[in-house]
Recover the amino acids of this structure.
């Protein structure tokens, strides 16, 4: 069923961390971070910060464990190859603060990353971070990279959207924009998570993985903020590619209903750094780490994150 994976390894032990940011009324907003450090004895390859999407917290996305599915945790997979791996729950998700009456939009998520990245850089030997974001997490990551390029070594944007042109998923979602705009949170459940995998091209993920993913998501949240949905339906484009100066890869699943390929190519053309790549992932729809072809996705990301810096730049 799966691509050839590495031999089974013990699950890496993780460590929880907490940091905070200051809200608009000077309130303290607590943010949860999760770390899986590089495996002992491995050559240190860098520090990865994984950024989650609109409808789930970070650990279900990046540290998922599915019986019989080797290397389901991308954090474990990268840690075994010498990377110090981190993820964080944005405000309103998972174990992070949910007390403020706001919809936690994309700009707020970029502020979370500013606080989280500062914590990681202050508490590790990392000089810069390898940043991966998926879906609205890619938008958050891109906004963060615009504002703090000095903190980002390489940027990976998966299931990214620029203007929204050519996105059937966003076209359908806009029909419910008044509902999303009227409240700060929207409900999620197992059926909603299954719908993520059925809307674009059914069959790209297996049922056991979808169930495990859904179980992990709803164990932390029965609702999530509406802000990213509102922004993606009514405020695009939010990111200016000309302001993303760091090396960047754009990763697009073959059947992703969020990321219109022509839209992404136009975005890619405008990235100023010549150290850039565009990868189309065969047989993949939207949630790439939970797909049957997940090890191919890992390989693409690993190749970009471990790429030597150019010796000659002209």
């Amino acid at each position: 069923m799966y691509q050839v994976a590495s031999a089974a390894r013990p699950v890496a032990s993780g460590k929880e961390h907490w940091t905070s940011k200051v809200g608009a009324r000077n309130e303290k907003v607590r943010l949860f971070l999760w770390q899986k450090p590089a495996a002992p004895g491995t050559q240190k390859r860098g520090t990865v910060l994984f950024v989650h999407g609109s409808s789930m917290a970070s650990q279900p996305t990046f540290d998922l464990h599915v019986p019989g599915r080797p290397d389901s945790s991308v954090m474990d997979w990268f840690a075994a190859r010498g990377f110090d791996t981190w993820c964080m729950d944005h405000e309103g998700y998972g174990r992070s603060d949910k007390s403020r009456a706001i919809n936690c939009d994309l700009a707020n998520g970029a502020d979370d990353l500013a606080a989280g990245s500062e914590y990681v850089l202050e508490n590790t030997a990392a000089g810069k971070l390898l940043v991966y974001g998926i879906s609205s997490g890619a938008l958050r990551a891109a906004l963060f990279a615009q504002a703090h390029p000095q903190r980002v070594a390489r940027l990976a944007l998966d299931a990214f959207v620029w203007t929204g042109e050519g996105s059937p998923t966003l076209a359908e979602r806009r029909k419910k924009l008044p509902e999303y705009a009227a409240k700060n949170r929207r409900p999620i459940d197992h059926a909603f998570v299954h719908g993520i995998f059925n809307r674009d091209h059914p069959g790209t993920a297996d049922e056991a993985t979808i169930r495990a993913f859904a179980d992990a998501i709803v164990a932390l949240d029965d609702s999530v903020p509406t802000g990213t949905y509102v922004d993606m339906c009514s405020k695009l484009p939010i990111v200016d590619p000309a302001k993303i100066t760091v090396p960047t890869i754009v990763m697009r699943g073959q059947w992703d209903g969020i990321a219109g390929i022509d839209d992404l190519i136009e975005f890619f053309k405008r990235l100023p750094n010549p150290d850039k790549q565009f990868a189309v992932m065969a047989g993949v729809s939207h949630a790439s780490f939970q797909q049957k072809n997940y090890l191919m996705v890992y390989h693409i990301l690993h190749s970009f994150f471990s790429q030597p810096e150019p010796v000659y730049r002209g």
Q: What stands out?
A: The CA atoms of residues 162 and 238 lie 7 Å apart. The beta strands are 15-22, 28-36, 46-51, 83-88, 129-134, 152-158, 185-187, 223-225, 248-253, 276-281.
